[in-house]
Specification:
By secondary structure, this protein is α/β, with parallel strands linked by helices. The chain has two domains: 40-273, Type I PLP-dependent aspartate aminotransferase-like (Major domain) (Aspartate Aminotransferase, domain 2, 3-Layer(aba) Sandwich), CATH 3.40.640; 281-405, Aspartate Aminotransferase, domain 1, CATH 3.90.1150.10. It has 16 helices and 15 strands. It has helices spanning 2-7, 9-24, 37-43, 67-82, 94-105, 131-134, 152-162, 180-190, 202-206, 243-254, 260-273, 276-298, 324-333, 361-365, 370-385, 390-406; strands at 26-27, 54-55, 58-59, 86-88, 111-115, 137-141, 166-170, 193-197, 219-223, 234-238, 302-303, 312-316, 336-337, 339-341, 355-359. The strands form four sheets. It has a seven-stranded mixed β-sheet, with helices on both faces. The protein has a four-stranded antiparallel β-sheet with strand order 11-12-15-14, with helices on one face. Helix 5 (94-105) crosses helix 10 (243-254) and helix 15 packs antiparallel against helix 16. The longest helix is centred in the C-terminal third of the chain and has 23 residues, at 276-298. The two termini are 15 Å apart. Bound molecules: D-serine (DSN). D-serine is lined by residues 31, 94, 122, 172.
């Protein structure tokens, strides 16, 4: 980035500091990852200069000789990786992708049913502060208070009572696999479209470490930058019969020109996701999450649902007598970065909740295995047990940095 360094040292310096932060710290935010150098190069390419409203072969601007091929390749690779009948790679990110689904199937005031935000659902699944909760009649289902698990019988009852036009399966903070066959049965029983938002676990689906929603869902969305390890972007995939409605909803319904540099980077990420190495990665993500979960359980942590079978864990810290926010800030000071998070039936407020959320995608990308996850669990326990101990935080931050040096992060290997 020599030109940037000369022309705009302020931004150059901030980017460089962020590079070192990502290199030297253990990143456990469940929705983050490291992209490969190839994905980063495509993201930073001249494709950012081109407008291409429309779809391959049907654009409103000339000069699409190469853009059409880029977008067609991205679409074909997504079809191959996921077995999707139709793919739209243009949504700018997850929220616009989900909004496109609503625009395709709903009129204002129609009913949707999704997982409640405080129980692990996403803002766009009908939270009252989001357009999805303001423009539609958003109903929600909750987790079982005893087990923290989805209660499919309760979801069925709620769906039969409120008769949603769209039933949403998907989450931002649920540490278990979803039973798509049962969601399908419930959707059929109430005449709903089954919409799966697999943003968090699409990389696990691609790598065969999580059941696929495709045999069951009418429409599936995913961001491309979480477990799928691509650029910031999203896709909507659907059955062929809904292709025209989805495409029309994305453009011209919601968006103008697609971000072609992102489309190219999605294509690169999908090529990576089709390899045996990615299958190994996805399996290791789950093994790593489970190794960390076991260590934390042994140390008396209260994991929602009692563990994990995907990439993430949600921990209720009430028994540790520390809030999520205090723990997250102490861990950040020790070089371990995660987010504070509400837990189901949380008695505290969302901005100062009782829990923390941890994910294994980014550390697995830098090569951590079970041994490093156990060490990480011990550090987390030490910090959470003494959140005001700044000397301990400094000591662990140095140990974290030393460990990270042995596991270079993808894309940052050359950083001295
Ligand atoms: N904000 C993302 C997450 O952290 O889960 C979801 O979009």
């Amino acid at each position: 980035m020599h030109t940037l360094q000369q022309q705009d040292p302020d931004i150059f310096n901030l980017i460089q500091q962020e590079e070192f932060r990502q290199k030297d710290k253990i990143r456990l935010i469940a929705s983050e990852n490291y992209v490969s150098k190839a994905v980063m190069e495509a993201t930073g390419s001249v494709l950012t200069n081109k407008y291409s409203e429309g779809y391959p072969g049907k654009r409103y601007y000339e000069g699409q000789q190469f853009i059409d091929q880029v977008e067609s390749l991205a679409i074909q690779r997504a079809k191959d990786v996921f077995g999707a009948e139709h793919v739209n790679v243009q949504p700018y990110s997850g929220s616009p992708a989900n909004l496109a689904v609503y625009l395709a199937f709903l009129s204002p005031g129609d009913t949707i049913l999704g997982m409640a935000l405080p129980h692990g659902g996403h803002l766009t699944h009908g939270a009252k502060v989001s357009i999805s909760g303001k423009y539609f009649n958003a109903e929600s289902y909750s987790l079982d208070e005893e087990t923290g698990l989805l209660n499919y019988e309760a979801i069925r009852e709620k769906a039969l009572a409120c008769k949603p036009k769209i039933l949403i399966a998907g989450h931002s903070a649920y540490p278990r696999q979803l039973d798509f066959a049962t969601f399908r049965e419930i959707a059929d029983a109430c005449g709903a479209i089954l919409f799966v938002d697999m943003a968090h676990f699409s990389g696990l689906v691609a790598g065969g470490a999580h059941p696929s929603p495709f045999p069951y869902a009418d429409v599936v969305t995913t961001t491309t930058h979480k477990s799928l390890r691509g650029p910031r972007g999203a896709m909507v995939m659907c059955k062929a019969e809904y292709a025209a409605a989805i495409d029309k909803a994305v453009f011209p319904g919601l968006q103008g020109g697609p971000h072609n540099n992102t489309t190219a980077a999605i294509a690169v990420a999908l090529k990576e996701a089709s390899t045996d190495a990615f299958k190994e990665y996805a399996a290791q993500v789950v093994k790593n999450a489970q190794a960390l979960a076991t260590t934390l359980l042994d140390k008396g942590f209260n994991l929602v649902t009692g563990g994990t079978d995907n990439h993430l864990m949600l921990i209720d810290l009430t028994n540790k007598e520390v809030t999520g926010k205090i723990a997250a800030k102490a861990l950040d000071a020790a070089g371990i970065v995660l987010n504070y998070n509400a837990v189901p039936y949380d008695k505290r407020k969302p901005f100062d909740p009782s829990g923390i959320r941890l994910g294994a995608c980014a550390v697995t990308s830098r090569g951590f295995k079970e041994e490093q996850m156990v060490q990480l669990g011990l550090w987390i326990d030490a910090i959470v047990s003494a959140p005001a101990n700044t000397a301990l935080q400094e000591e662990i931050a140095a140990a974290v940095k030393a460990l990270c040096a042995k596991f270079p992060a993808p894309g940052l290997e050359d950083l001295a």
